[in-house]
């Protein structure tokens, strides 16, 4: 089911103030959270916190939960949290050949998943496939918004200006889907959407600035600085794909020896392992052989691990961050050569630099789709409106 099926009119009157939006975001990101912690985090007095939170309680967005850790005498604390049985969101990772979708709650917890092979890469055909996939995911749920992530350039969260895997230029995918679905649709670059998910529900809960590095079909790079996802006209061009990492490494299709594409992508690792073994090797098989101690496959993975560590050091040094998230469908190599990755990353940083924190998201395709859902959640929260009449009920009432 799509959209708001309530009989009451939608909230239209007053946009959230910056303070109210910050409060909603803090409870969503960190809840259950005590009022004391909220006040300190947002620098709000108890009276201001009560005033700002009241409309969210009136509309069923905030709830009080019991604090089982409370002991002793006195009134037990009642931390605040968002109501997790509220509206649902759909996130979709769109590739050249298929669409993978997840149904999530407000914190991108996966509640269901489905995938669909694309019948064709034309816009009309892809839109039809996406509508069918979203319908399957939302058969018994009300969906508040949909997010779609795509490898390529996106402007205004609506137009796919360049998607080389699909062969698209200047496609207003958001409008095409909204006409069919009747709910807000947000389109975003896949790495940027993954960074948004980490910002609110992953590494960003601990670090206001961090980098995201993905490996799989390609090499992706995203950056969050002071709680803002960095997005420019160059986002989605895959500019991290040809960073030189090993002068003695294999050559990529563009003729670069030992660049990140040649050392880290699934196809590059598969190709190099196959060359040494004298036969075609799949990526999963290359990992399995290396994990079992095959010297040729293990050598390929170790070289890739050292290259990945060098890239981690370069990114964290140049961006001046000390937290990086490694993700993507190719992150299975972490389980085999994490020691090489960490050693090379630390060797590439100044010994007096702040300690490096590497967070690994091995959720694969599901992580990409949850990232798209996070973009939809952020958009929905930013557009919340509050009517001054507390007798009205609204988002996210079911």
CATH topology of the largest domain: Nucleotidyltransferase, domain 5
Strand order of the largest sheet: 5-4-3-6-10
Mean pLDDT: 88
Please compute the radius of gyration using only Cα atoms: 23 Å
Describe the main β-sheet briefly: 5 strands, mixed
What does the model show?
Helices cover 38% and strands 20% of the residues. The protein is an alpha/beta fold. It has a five-stranded mixed sheet with strand order 5-4-3-6-10. It is globular.
Summarize the structure.
The protein is an alpha/beta fold. It is built from twelve helices and 15 strands. The radius of gyration is 23 Å and the shape is globular.
Topology:
Layout: H1 18-30, H2 35-42, H3 46-58, E1 62-64, E2 80-82, E3 88-94, E4 98-104, E5 110-117, H4 123-137, E6 143-150, E7 153-155, E8 159-163, E9 168-172, H5 173-181, E10 185-189, H6 190-201, E11 210-215, E12 219-225, E13 228-229, H7 260-264, H8 266-277, H9 283-291, H10 295-319, E14 323-327, H11 334-347, E15 357-360, H12 365-382
Parallel strand pairs: 3-6, 6-10, 11-14, 14-15
Antiparallel strand pairs: 1-2, 3-4, 4-5, 7-8, 8-9, 11-12, 12-13
Helix pairs in contact: 1-3, 4-5, 6-12, 8-10, 9-10, 10-11
Features:
398 residues; alpha/beta; Arc Repressor Mutant, subunit A; Nucleotidyltransferase, domain 5; 3 domains; 5-stranded mixed sheet; 38% helix; 20% strand; disordered C terminus
């Amino acid at each position: 089911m799509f959209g708001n099926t309530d009989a009451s009119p939608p909230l239209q009157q007053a946009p959230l103030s910056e303070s109210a939006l910050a409060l909603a975001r803090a409870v969503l990101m960190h809840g259950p959270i005590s009022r004391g912690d909220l006040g300190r985090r947002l620098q709000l007095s108890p009276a201001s916190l009560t005033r700002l939170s009241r409309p969210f309680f009136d509309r069923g967005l905030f709830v009080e939960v019991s604090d089982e850790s409370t002991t002793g005498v006195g009134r037990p604390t009642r931390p605040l949290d968002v109501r997790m049985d509220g509206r649902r969101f759909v996130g979709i990772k769109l590739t050249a050949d298929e669409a993978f979708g997840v149904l999530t709650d407000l914190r991108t917890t996966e509640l269901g998943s489905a995938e669909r092979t694309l019948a064709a890469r034309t816009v009309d055909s892809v839109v039809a496939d996406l509508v069918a996939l979203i319908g399957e995911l939302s058969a018994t749920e009300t969906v508040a918004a949909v997010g779609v992530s795509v490898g390529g350039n996106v402007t205004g969260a609506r137009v796919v200006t360049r998607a080389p895997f699909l062969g698209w230029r200047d496609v207003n995918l958001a409008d095409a889907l909204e006409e069919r679905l009747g709910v807000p649709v947000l389109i975003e670059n896949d790495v940027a959407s993954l960074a948004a998910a980490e910002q609110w529900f992953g590494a960003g809960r601990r670090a206001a600035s961090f980098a995201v590095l993905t490996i799989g079909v390609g090499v992706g790079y995203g950056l969050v600085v002071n709680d803002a996802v960095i997005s420019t006209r160059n986002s989605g061009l895959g500019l991290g794909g040809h960073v030189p990492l090993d002068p003695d490494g294999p050559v990529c299709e563009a003729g670069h020896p030992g660049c990140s594409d040649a050392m880290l992508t699934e196809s590059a690792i598969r190709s190099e392992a196959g060359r040494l073994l004298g036969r075609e090797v799949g990526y999963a098989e290359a990992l399995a052989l290396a994990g079992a101690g095959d010297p040729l496959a293990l050598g390929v993975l170790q070289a890739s691990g050292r290259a990945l560590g060098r890239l981690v050091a370069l990114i964290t040094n140049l961006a001046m961050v000390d937290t990086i998230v490694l993700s993507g469908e190719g992150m299975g190599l972490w389980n085999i050569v994490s020691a090489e990755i960490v050693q090379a990353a630390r060797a590439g940083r100044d010994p007096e630099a702040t300690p490096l924190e590497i967070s690994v998201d091995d959720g694969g395709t599901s992580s990409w789709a949850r990232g798209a859902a996070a973009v939809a959640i952020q958009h929905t929260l930013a557009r919340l409106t509050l009517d001054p009449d507390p007798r009205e009920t609204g988002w996210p009432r079911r």
